[in-house]
Amino acid sequence: MPLPPHARQTARDLIAFIDASPSPWHAAASAEQHLQAAGFTRLEEGARWSLAPGGRHYVLRGGASLIAFTLGSRPLAEAGFRIVGAHTDSPGLRLKPRPALGGDGLARLAVEIYGGPILATFADRDLSLAGRVMLRGAAGPQARLLRFDRPLLRLPNLAIHMNREVNEAGLKFDKQTELPLLLGLLDKDGDADARLRELLAAAVQCASDDLLSWELAAYDVQPGSLWGADEEFIASRQLDNLASCHAALAALTAVSGPAATTVAALFDHEEVGSESAAGAGGSFVGDVLARIGLAQGLDGEDRRCALANSFFISADMAHAYNPNFPAAFEPGHKVMVNGGPVIKSNANQRYTTDAATAARFMALCRHAGVPCQQYAHRGNLGCGSTIGPIVAAQLGIAGVDVGSPMWAMHSARESAGALDPAWMVAALAACYLS
């Protein structure tokens, strides 16, 4: 079935957003560009805020976490906040601070595993580097985004002739000795560190000695695409969770004149537990909400009323049913790609959903004309978690965990439905207008 034009355009917009965002720092920069184009203005945490009614603003923390908001038309204590939370980071491989390895005439780069990637999917792919570097500046260290668009690195597989059991035992890598990424040939001096620093310095147009430190991720340079008989599916890296970031931003910027104050909170470090100054476990979202309240003259009692009258959606991707692996799924909860947003529930509070918040999200989907599904994890498998329980516990706000269904979560190249992005945007927009 051919995609409706609006769904196709939303899917292509999502692919473009992900293609432009190979690292969480690039994702925050992409979000910032999107917000500025929609008339949002940047605030600085280190300066006093002056917020006018109807104002549209955003603030960054740590370079990769961003919170944007539109001030509502109704009193904050009565209407509260409508918050959508997502995360900018994705699991994968990160360069170590001193990664250069030389030997056997080859330069390799030592990496650290970030989060829980499917390591085998990074083998034999066109990888490159993206992230941020810190440079020596006249007024102190300066951050600069860095991205190599061309294939730069590779994790070559071992031939089956030397790993005869690979198809039976699975492809496995020793996390210390077998994951260093090949960078290139060494010259007669054999200085792998100098080779790396020259490449990085040239990419940001600085002297090699001015490079102080870096946070760089290996990423797959293959662009995202639509695939399938009618191009009804999406293939891309980092669908988890840039698809939710894109949906939150698209919904926030599409809604004008909301009654409640609307918030999109995009956090770094979800894949490693969120316990950081810029993560959902830090003070970022609480600080921003408190400052919004102070700017509107709320006292302590009013602020607690505002939080009690608020609603929080934790938007993270969901596990779509895979017909090749039916035993991995709970029989009554086989959520389908292109089936609409998924409400995720877990009795042990790995998700923040309860019966009341699930019903509220169902009503939002019905109002938006969007189908929705319900997911619970199989009982004999460990269930992942999200920023949902963390933010809900910090703020005391009723919340629900939702996500668009996808295949191969945490792979170097994931897949999802091309209808679902537009449906998620519509559902989140309905929340912002509620």
| CATH domain class name of the largest domain | Alpha Beta
Strand numbers in spatial order across the main sheet: 1-2-3-13-4-14-18-16-17
> What name does CATH use for the topology of the largest domain?
Aminopeptidase
Class derived from helix and strand content: alpha/beta
Helix content: 25-40%
The biggest beta sheet is recorded as:
9 strands, mixed
CATH homology-level superfamily of the largest domain: Zn peptidases
Tertiary shape: globular
Provide a descriptive summary of the structure in words.
It is a single chain. With 434 residues, the protein is α/β, with parallel strands linked by helices. The chain has helices at residues 5-19, 24-37, 76-79, 166-169, 192-204, 239-254, 284-295, 300-308, 355-368, 388-395, 420-432; strands spanning 41-43, 56-61, 65-70, 81-87, 92-103, 106-114, 127-135, 142-147, 181-185, 211-220, 225-227, 233-236, 261-267, 311-315, 318-319, 342-344, 373-375, 399-403, 405-407, 414-417. It folds into 2 domains: 5-90 and 237-432, Aminopeptidase (3-Layer(aba) Sandwich); 92-220, Aminopeptidase i, Domain 2, CATH 2.30.250. The chain is built from 11 helices and 20 strands. The strands form 3 sheets. It has a 9-stranded mixed beta sheet with strand order 1-2-3-13-4-14-18-16-17, with helices on both faces. A 6-stranded antiparallel beta sheet has the order 8-7-10-5-6-9, sandwiched between helices. Helix 9 crosses helix 11. The longest helix has 16 residues, at 239-254. It is globular and about 70 Å long.
